[in-house]
Amino acid sequence: MMLKAIGLCVQLNHQSLQCPVSIPCHVKLQILHMTGIHDIAVDYCGCNQQAVKTCATFRLLEMFHLLSLVSKTSTYDFYHTLERMSDNTGLNTPPSCRAALMHMLIQWGEWAHDVTGPEGTKPGELAVLCPSCPWPGINLPSDWDQDKSRFLYLLLICIDVNFHLKNQIMLLYSRDPGLSIGWSYFTAHEPYEDYVQRSLLLTLQQISTCVEFSTMAKSNTKFSKGLRYTGVVAISCGRSEIVLLTCVRNMDKGERFNKYANIAPLAAAAIHQFSDLLWVVISYDITCQWIKTIFTQMTLHWPSKLQFNPDIRITPLVPKFHKPGHKAEEHEQFSFNLTEGVGLSDGECPKRIWAGHNALGNSTKTVGPGTQQDLIDNHLGFWNWVKYCYMGEPSLKLAWIHIHRD
């Protein structure tokens, strides 16, 4: 039995108080809640003339927000779950409110409580920063740049691509530009697009002189037919597995190695964030190819905004799991096991990050380009937040062990 049938009437816009000029709702108003889709009688506020046909409770929006972040469920599946909770026979299914629910989710998650508004938001301002990375003036001692302790404060970044997060050619950017691209993890679309589009694809024979990894093989194959993007590349901290701000972008056609167009903006953005550092270790499964001409390409082809200090010590390494797939000769310099300062790091943290986001591909494949990037930004932000919250737990346990041991 519907709540309307037993006499429930809700007054809108007056915090449960009666509006002195209330207007009875004479249409069928549907309320989306965690218990299903309900038909409820309401009185509109007579102070304005806005007619509402569909609404949702904040509790429902909060639940779906967390449910989607944890389980990677889509709005489509969640809404049809509500339909089944309302009528599992399918005989009295309410009219679809899924489009309205999607609009409400966007409006509910707006950027607020900032006097500058969205226009004053800076690149990467909404991202969760990595507390494990070396930030001069924040978490480093005054003598961090001395030779004896330099290895303690090197920057370890890892690059990898997820080919599960594809995106079909649906809407254009003009129809779906996104709401917050460039404010957290995805890099802004416009600044580097001309640079990327000028780059031409190399054939596999031109790409590889070492080993034919799937990351290279997928760049010129039939798997990219009908797709706007074949995957997503991200740069993360090799210590904490936190994704770095403005260091995520889509891959247009596999990994464009001519001028390294897709990787270059991200690597430069990551290094620019730590421009005062002296030593950067870069882990990438095909770094033996990527690193060969990076400084030459930077000088000849990169836009000036991408170029970084060439005096920074760059140490390229191959992740431990991928190392056996490379040629043995002349590859010792790419080994984690033979490199000073990296400890027991394996360089495989992107694989662990992407493993938790592969299921998101079902939601990102058929949406517009802006929605896809906003969605991935949201999930990467949740990943970083969870990592941040639990980061102190191992140290606390270790300290507890030492206290009781003493």
UniProtKB/TrEMBL annotation:
The lineage of its organism: Eukaryota, Fungi, Dikarya, Basidiomycota, Agaricomycotina. Residues 50-90 form the CxC2-like cysteine cluster KDZ transposase-associated domain. It comes from the Eukaryota. This is CxC2-like cysteine cluster KDZ transposase-associated domain-containing protein.
